[in-house]
Amino acid sequence: MSVAPLPLDLADEPGSSTTPSPVRKIGEQVLNAVTEVGDLTIFCGLTMSWLFSRRPKWSVLVPSFYAIGVQSVPVVAITGTFIGMVLAVQAYSQFEMMGLATRLGSVINISLVKELGPVLAATMLAGRVGSSMAAELGTMRVTEQIDAISALGTNPINYLVVPRFLACVLLIPLLTLMADFMGVIGGAVVSTQLLKVDSFYYWYHSRQYVGSLDLLAGVFKSYFFGSAIALISCHRGFHSKAGAEGVGKAATEAFVYSFIAILVIDFIIGIFWNAVYYAIWPNATGLL
Amino acid sequence: MSPSTRQATHNGPIIELEGVSIGFRQQAVLRDITLRIERGQTVCIIGESGCGKTVMLKLMIGLLRPNSGIVRFDGSDLSTLNEAEMVKVRLRFGFLFQSAALFDSLTIFDNVAFGPREHNLYPREELDHVVADRLQEVGLPLGLESKKPAELSGGQRKRVGLARALALNPEVMLYDEPTTGLDPIMTDVINELILQTKRTKKATGVVVTHEMKTVIKVADRVVMLYPLARLRSDEPQMIFDGPPEALEDHEDKRIRQFVRGEAGERLREMSQERVDPAPARDSP
Fold first, then answer.
1. Chain B within 8 Å of A154 (Cβ-Cβ)?
2. B116-146 pLDDT tens trace
3. Cα(B73)–Cα(B21) distance, integer angstroms
4. For residue B168, what is the nearest residue in chain A, using CA coordinates?
């Protein structure tokens, strides 16, 4: 991938050596932000074009799938379990006061499969996988390994980004399902064993309120979370600045930007999914 | 495409830079560089740190695009080539990076086999022999193939980098500071390998270096660049282009200083530059 540097005439701009005014600083920051968004858009476009034009080799795909999928299993399992357990502990006293303790299962499980499972699993993965990808690619950038890939006639986006993108998009939904499952188990164990909620009614209300469409809603958004984590993290890594500080900054930015993207996507998909509910059940109550 | 079947498509210079300028954000690095490199020639590019030597190498192989000017390889303007054509051009190059740029996650075997494997240049059984031959050519002992780059010394890493570049059987070898950070013996080993590549592969070579020993040993021609920050806008950036013998006792003080490594005089100039930021102008 060749890189087009900024035009030289910027360097000859009069007064470029003087201290910039606050207005100019703000202008520069806005310009930088717009440039970054544009650059990320081009990066996404290139990734998509390589994704459909040439299938990555198994020898490249398998390590990515292992690192992103298999190695994330423990952290996602622990996260999911504790979300369910904490939800049970936090919600129990309120429901108990209202005499609705047996409805705890429906609240815990709907929260888990629709919202907390996908979002918290994606957040954990943005921290574990996203930062790691950005740091790895950032190190490759500053040690000229990405240039070496290009010099050997291979496209670095095809070789480095596409396998990671595929691993995130295909495996993060599976990891989300696992987080959901572990959360459901964790919530049920705490509710029925520690808090002594009747297990028959716990599961009975769960079945009443949690449908397959709710599960689908959570998994559906996790595809978008996976795409966002992969693209943002790889982009940050590819544009890492030199030195340990540059790589560290790329890893931090990968997590922060991925997390913001997860929240924004969650909000947009929430609105979209509500519209779908209304379309299917016009008389149902919704958020909007 | 088998490496052995590649043919030159053009009788002129293999690499040609015509009025090339490039800069990064606020800093201009190369200005109006014109350079023609003939087939089979070994050109050393010398100059102080930050004068744009590595940038020049990356322009030649299309890793960077110039802001203005034309870069041609074998008669083709690189800016007009599409992705597939660019890949074909790059397969005719070998690039030894300053830090060797070996892929950390791959073994030595996989590093050397990377290029041929990605482009399916050899059948699997033949690839084993090609990798073994390349490692042997650069004097690396058997049994190193399964190690990771982190387990090697600096000199060994450089030689693996060279073996990886040679695995594509290149027509042009680009060396970015091949001897930096190596002890004198290993420096000489790398210089010998550059000479060996030139003799046996008949490859054109472009060597970016600070080492005058390397220049004397391998260069047919030397090009010296000067940092733009210390030049007037009307002064050429390429302050020397000629045979290595002409470097010694050159009339230009800047060239003499660099060749002889006159640190004291340069240090005095630098302290004066701090007081007076105007670019230094040397009289012969």
1. yes
2. 999 988 898 899 999 999 998 888 888 888 9
3. 17
4. A152
What residues in B contact A154, CB-CB < 8 Å?
87, 114-115, 118-119
CA A43 and chain centroid, separation: 17
**CA A79 vs CA A178, A184, A256, A266, B209: distances in Å:** 10, 12, 19, 19, 53
Half-sphere CA count of B283, side-chain side, radius 13 A: 0
Alpha-carbon distance B23 to nearest alpha carbon in chain A (angstroms): 5
- The 10s digit of each residue's pLDDT in B231-246 is 888 888 888 888 888 8
Q: pLDDT at residue B267 above 80? A: no
Q: A198 — contact with chain B (CB < 8 Å)?
A: no
CB contact under 8 A, A153 and B67: no
Q: Which of B65, B90, B104 is facing A151, going by the closest CB pair?
A: B90
**Is this complex's ipTM strictly greater than 0.90?**
no
Sign of the torsion formed by the C-alpha atoms of A69, A73, A76 and A77: positive
Tokens 């979209």: give the residue.
A272
- Which residue, among A288, A118, A114, has the nearest Cα to A214 in the 3D structure? A114
CA nearest A43: which of A270, A271, A230? A230
> What's the rounded Cα separation, in Å, for the pair B4 and B92?
10
Task: Say whether residue A60 is in contact with chain B using an 8 A CB cutoff.
Answer: no
* Cβ of residue A14 closer than 8 Å to a chain B Cβ: no
Length of chain A: 288
Contact B195, B216 (CB under 8 A): no
Question: What pLDDT is attached to residue B235?
Answer: 84
Task: State the Cα–Cα distance between residues A142 and A243, nearest whole angstrom.
Answer: 7
- Pairing type for strands B27-37 and B15-24 reads antiparallel
B35 - beta bridge partners?
A: B17
Q: Are B198 and B205 in contact (CB under 8 A)?
A: yes
**Chain A residues in contact with B62 (beta carbon < 8 A):** 2
What integer pLDDT is reported at residue A11 of this predicted model?
A: 40
Dihedral sign computed on CA atoms, order B59, B65, B68, B74:
positive
pLDDT at B53 over 80: yes
Confirm if A106 and A203 have CB atoms less than 8 A apart.
no
At A25 the three-state DSSP class reads helix
Give the best residue of A8, A66, A136, A141 to mutate against chain B (max B CB count within 10 A): A8
Task: Determine the average pLDDT of the residues in B192-216.
Answer: 90
Report chain B residues whose CB lies below 8 A from the CB of A140: 103-104
Q: What is the pLDDT of residues A82-115, one digit of tens each?
A: 999 999 999 998 888 888 888 888 989 999 998 8
CA dist., res. B228 & res. B236, Å (int)? 9
Question: Do residue B28 and residue A154 have CB atoms under 8 angstroms apart?
Answer: no
- Strand stretches in chain B, DSSP E: 15-24, 27-37, 42-46, 68-73, 76-77, 93-96, 172-176, 204-208, 221-225, 238-242
Nearest CA-CA distance, residue A72 and chain B, Å: 19
A53 at interface of B, judged by CB pairs closer than 8 A = no
pLDDT at residue B249 greater than cutoff 60? yes
